[in-house]
Every structure is written in structure tokens, then in C-alpha cells.
Design a protein that fits this description.
Elements: H1 7-13, E1 19-23, H2 30-38, E2 45-48, H3 52-57, H4 61-67, E3 73-76, H5 84-95, E4 101-105, H6 109-118, E5 123-127, H7 141-147, H8 151-154, H9 159-180, H10 187-199, E6 203-204, H11 207-214, H12 218-230, E7 234-237, E8 253-256, H13 259-265, H14 271-275, H15 280-296, E9 301-306, E10 312-319, E11 322-328, H16 338-347, E12 351-355, E13 362-365, E14 368-371, H17 373-379
Parallel strand pairs: 1-4, 1-5, 2-3, 3-4, 11-12, 12-14
Antiparallel strand pairs: 6-8, 7-8, 9-10, 10-11, 13-14
Helix pairs in contact: 7-13, 9-13, 11-12
């Protein structure tokens, strides 16, 4: 049994807020985690807004909520019932107590917009990502890198079964979920968009290239990417701006958020197949990034920095005035470029790490350490 790292955090927030919302991609384990939390509360109620029978129970929501006053009510896939938010505000304000509602949503823009309008000051959000390295037994990074962190994919009996699940998930997302999130894109263009995102994984986002390939305008492509990022299926890493007297890249980098979905999109079934693939280094970079965000995304602002002369630091962590640089190298004998050291000096980094598939950490200099992903997570 997996104990998710967010379990205690969510349980504590229910003591301090009337409404707690768990948001994240579909099938990342929100419902399972919520069920474990709800089990601790006497006579708690769990309703799935995709289930017609459960939705029928809320035909008169005010009457239903009043009948269950004082109990924790969990509403799954709340984005399918946006009209409930106005009712929730009234119920919360009359109830005058914390721990009234636990909401689960697949991070749709509709969910965020509706709740921010009607539940401001009453709601707190917790982002649940797929499994991170420190949530898995034995911290098997090779398995997690290829299968990704979606529970059904990671826990599948074989790589073949895992890949089949991910491909089915992608088809369902393209055929059903994209339309639910307001993207009127035909299945063929949806598939091509996903393939382009996979091939651009870890690279500077070029909306013009996307538009030319898909026959869409620059603003339309930007809208599609923004919506997909809002579902946590894509991730845009913003550039860091600093007065370095250098021309800096001002466009974000694009990642498929889950490394297993990336491998499925590129039809990479096993770790050995990944080793020989051109995307291997970028896949490693995205894998390190997703684990950093899962562990320390609330503590640090996360960026990258790159100059027009191709000097780059893959990931920058900022906390107050403190800057930490992270370079990702998919090699057991990583080497750093002159550009990295120049940026390190210009930015006055207090510490830098080179994250590589190594078995033990070792220093490159006084402030630069080579380490594995699990060692990095312990240091943050």
C-alpha cells in the first residue's frame, strides 16, 4: 500500500479550512487518496459527479447538504458540476466550520475559475501529481522513468501492460477529455499536437512551428498549450530573468509532465529502448524536474536560464534571494560546459547540483555536487 506524501497535509488543512480542493491530472490517485482520508471521518459522504446516480442525489443540493450538515462531504470530478459552487459558498458560510467539503478535480480551467470567483477565502488547493520517486518502494528510478507515476501504469505487472494502459489513457484523453476542457480540436490534430509536444519535450517552446505543422494560428496554439498545461498533462517551465548583460531566452521550455506518458507517445516500451533514443537526455531532465516539483514545488520558485550563446542551466530554484542551480546529465560520468560555470558565477549561486544516474554523490568543486535524483530530493 502506498502512503501518499500529501495525506497528512490534506488531513491537516481540513482542520483549518472549510473547503479543501485536491487538483491534478486524471487517474493520478486523487479518488484513492480522498477515500483514505474520508474513511477517518464518521458518516462522511463521497459522491462522484461523473456518476448519474450520484448527480441525481444533488438535484436539490441545498436540501442534500442540509441533510448531511456536520459531515465531511467529498465531491469527485467537481468540474462536471460547476453550478454547485454558488451553493457551496452559501452552505460554507452558514455552516461556519472547517472541514465541510473535500473537492476533487482534474484541474480544469472551469474548476479554477468557478472556485476562485465563489469560494475565495474559503478554499485551499493541494496539487496531487502522479507518484514521485520518494513515494515508490525501493526508489526504482529506471522503472519510474519509463512507466511514469500514474498508479495503474507504475503498478502494472509488466512493461507491456504498463505501456498498453498509457496508450489507452492517451486515446481517452484525446477523444473525450480534451473536449470536456473546451478544446474543439479534431482527433487527428489532437494526436499531432501531442506528438509535437513529445518531440519538443525539454526544448524551447516555439508556437510558430506548432502552428505551421497544425495549420493553426499562433494565438490558437498558445491557447491549446495553455489549456493542456492547465490539466497538468503538459508543463511550461518559465525562463529566469536577470540583469547579466547577456541576451537571455525569454520563451518557456515545454515538457510532457509525466515521463511515462512521454515514453508512450514516442512508443518507447522499456528502459533499454530509452537508452538508445534521441529523447533520452530530455526525458531525464523532465523526470528530474517532475520529482523536484512534487517534493519542493511549494517551497521554491522554479525556472531555467539560457542565453543566446547557448549557455544554460536546466533548472533554477529560487527561495527569497537564494538561488540553486541544477544541471541534468543522463550519464554516469557527467561533464559541465564552460557556459554553466559562467552562469553560475554571474548568478552567484549558493549551491549547484548535477543530477545524474550515479550510485553515490561526490563533489565537483566546493559548491557543485554530483548526485542521484533521490539524493537531491533529500537535500532540498
Amino acid at each position: 500500500m502506498f502512503i501518499r506524501a500529501k495525506f497528512s497535509e490534506i488531513d491537516e488543512l481540513l482542520q483549518d479550512f472549510p473547503v479543501v480542493a485536491i487538483i491534478g491530472p486524471r487517474q493520478c490517485g486523487k479518488s484513492t487518496l480522498a477515500a483514505e482520508i474520508v474513511a477517518q471521518y464518521e458518516e462522511a459522504v463521497f459522491l462522484d459527479m461523473e456518476d448519474p446516480d450520484d448527480r441525481a442525489k444533488l438535484s436539490n443540493p441545498t436540501l442534500f447538504f442540509n441533510a448531511h450538515k456536520g459531515k465531511l462531504i467529498c465531491l469527485d470530478e467537481i468540474q462536471f458540476a460547476p453550478d454547485l459552487f454558488q451553493v457551496l459558498r452559501s452552505v460554507v458560510d452558514k455552516g461556519k466550520m472547517n472541514g465541510q467539503f473535500l473537492l476533487l478535480g482534474s484541474a480544469s480551467p472551469e474548476l479554477l475559475r468557478q472556485s476562485s470567483e465563489t469560494l475565495a477565502g474559503r478554499i485551499v488547493y493541494v496539487e496531487l501529481a502522479p507518484f514521485s520517486l520518494d513515494e515508490t518502494p525501493n526508489q526504482d528510478w529506471q522503472k519510474l522513468l519509463v512507466r511514469g507515476g500514474f498508479p495503474r501504469s507504475y503498478l502494472a505487472k509488466s512493461d507491456k501492460s504498463s505501456l498498453a494502459w498509457r496508450k489507452s489513457f492517451i486515446r481517452t484523453f484525446l477523444e473525450r477529455d480534451i473536449a470536456a476542457f473546451g478544446l474543439n480540436l479534431n482527433p487527428e490534430n489532437s494526436s499531432r499536437l501531442w506528438q509535437m509536444c513529445a518531440h519538443y519535450h525539454g526544448q524551447i517552446l516555439n508556437y510558430s512551428d506548432f502552428g505551421k505543422s497544425l495549420g493553426l494560428t499562433h494565438p490558437t496554439v498558445r491557447h491549446y498549450v495553455d489549456v493542456l498545461a492547465g490539466t497538468f498533462m503538459l508543463r511550461k517551465l518559465p525562463p529566469y530573468f536577470a540583469n547579466l548583460e547577456k541576451r537571455l531566452v525569454k520563451t518557456p521550455k515545454l515538457y510532457v509532465a509525466d515521463s511515462g506518458i512521454l515514453c508512450a507517445l514516442l512508443n518507447i516500451p522499456t528502459f533499454n529502448d530509452l537508452l538508445g533514443h534521441p529523447v533520452a537526455g530530455f526525458a531525464w531532465e523532465g523526470f528530474v524536474l517532475q520529482n523536484i516539483l512534487s517534493k519542493a514545488g511549494d517551497e521554491y520558485e522554479v525556472y531555467f536560464i539560457s542565453t543566446s550563446a547557448d549557455a544554460e542551466i536546466d533548472i533554477l530554484l529560487k527561495k527569497g534571494r537564494k538561488l540553486i542551480g541544477i544541471e541534468c546529465k543522463f550519464s554516469t560520468a557527467p561533464k559541465l560546459t564552460k557556459g554553466f560555470y559562467n552562469l553560475k558565477k554571474d548568478l552567484k549561486l549558493v549551491q549547484s547540483y548535477v543530477v545524474a544516474p550515479v550510485s553515490g554523490s561526490y563533489p565537483l568543486d566546493k559548491t557543485t555536487t554530483v548526485c542521484s535524483p533521490d539524493e537531491l530530493l533529500k537535500l532540498l
